[in-house]
Design goal:
- The structure is a single chain.
- About 0% of the residues are buried.
- The mean pLDDT is about 85.
- The protein has about 140 residues and is largely without helices or strands.
Length: about 140
């Protein structure tokens, strides 16, 4: 509430003048709401390639020709002598690999406007006219019958 000191105005009363002509301009605060866009963040969107070492274990086969020389049982005085072996690789499996990209997921990127309700409270001032009477004059109120 506005105190009397905020609105006190001394109006000189001239006894010679039959009328007093004073205009008080009463004011009040009004709340003016305005909205503006404010950038609160920035986003950089990119793809990042990561590398990962992977190890695989698999079996490979091959074919070989084995030539084994054995002495006849009657010709060898010692039975513990190992046979003479020759190995010749004829064919083998070779590992071949290729890399290919497969789709993992689709990522959608878009902007979306969201509405939210904000409650604002503010105290507003308002002026009213007031009369302070000094002494004991007769006061006439024309609004009463």
């Amino acid at each position: 509430m506005i105190g009397e000191k905020d609105m006190a105005m001394n109006i000189p009363v001239d006894r010679e003048s039959p009328t007093i002509d004073v205009t008080l301009q009463l004011k009040e605060e009004q709340l003016v709401l305005a909205k503006k866009w404010l950038q609160t963040g920035e986003v950089k969107i990119y793809r990042e390639s990561l590398t990962e070492e992977k190890g695989f274990t698999l079996t490979v086969e091959y074919e070989e020709l084995v030539i084994e020389k054995k002495l006849p049982v009657s010709a060898a005085p010692e039975q513990n002598e190992p046979p003479d072996v020759i190995r010749i690789r004829l064919s083998e499996e070779q590992v071949e690999f290729t890399k290919r990209m497969v789709s993992l997921e689709d990522v959608s990127i878009y902007k979306q406007q969201i509405e939210e309700i904000q409650h604002i409270e503010e105290t507003l001032k308002r002026e009213e006219s007031a009369i302070k009477i000094f002494g004991s004059p007769k006061v006439r109120d024309d609004y009463q019958n």
